[in-house]
Amino acid sequence: MRVLGVDPGLTRCGVGVVEGVAGRPLTMLGVGVVRTPSDAELGHRLVAIERGIEQWLDDHRPECVAVERVFSQHNVSTVMGTAQASAVAMLCASRRGIPVVLHTPSEVKAAVTGSGRADKAQVGAMVTRLLRLSAPPRPADAADALALAICHIWRSPAQNRLQRAVARHATTARPATPARPAATARPATPARPPTAGGPAEAARPSTAAQQTPAPKGRTA
Fold first, then answer.
1. By the 8 A CB rule, do 140 and 155 touch?
2. Active-site annotation holds for 50
3. What is the model's pTM?
4. Strands 100-103 and 64-68: what pairing?
5. Catalytic residue list contains 19
6. Catalytic residue among 41, 58, 63, 68
7. Residue 59 annotated among the catalytic residues of the structure
8. Could you tell me which of 141, 130, 131 has the C-alpha nearest to residue 85?
9. Quick one: which of 21, 149, 157, 172 could link to 3 by a disulfide (CB 3.0–4.6 Å)?
10. Rounded to an integer, what distance in angstroms lies between the CA atom of residue 164 and that of residue 176?
11. How many Cα atoms sit within 13 Å of 74 on the Cβ side?
């Protein structure tokens, strides 16, 4: 796997390309920074970053682009500039159909050094060791970009297994039981004819009551 790591920033946008697979030695194919003058207009700076990243994509043809996820800081202007540079990197990769992944600084530090609170010096030292470099990349933005690429190469197998497990679960999940149709109203049962001794029978006058008594016979 060949990954382009991007540590976004308006003044210095770190870029680094690493190739390899998890569990085997990795190789650095290139590292550097895309710089823009701080006194230039924002639009011109973003265009310069776009051109620089496009050049790196042309030269190295990465299979994936790993970008640092922007997180909240006290300096709002710094956060805005970082987010804008990050969006440019994501746009350049997506326009070419290259997958983009985001990793937080803590994830990168933990993957490279074993501690999510490592400082930049520790990250640079571990990047130098992992890539078998003669000296830590300078400036620190360049080392951070390489660390992003390393982080993704090491984490991608676990992420792929998780995605496959989720996909299998979605295909094997039982479909929802369809709702039962509403029961149709049963026709009313016709009334049974009254039985002997019932109220209707009692209402009818008895046969004896209907007969007219015979006249008494005359005596001799």
1. no
2. no
3. 0.73
4. parallel
5. no
6. 68
7. no
8. 141
9. 149
10. 22
11. 0
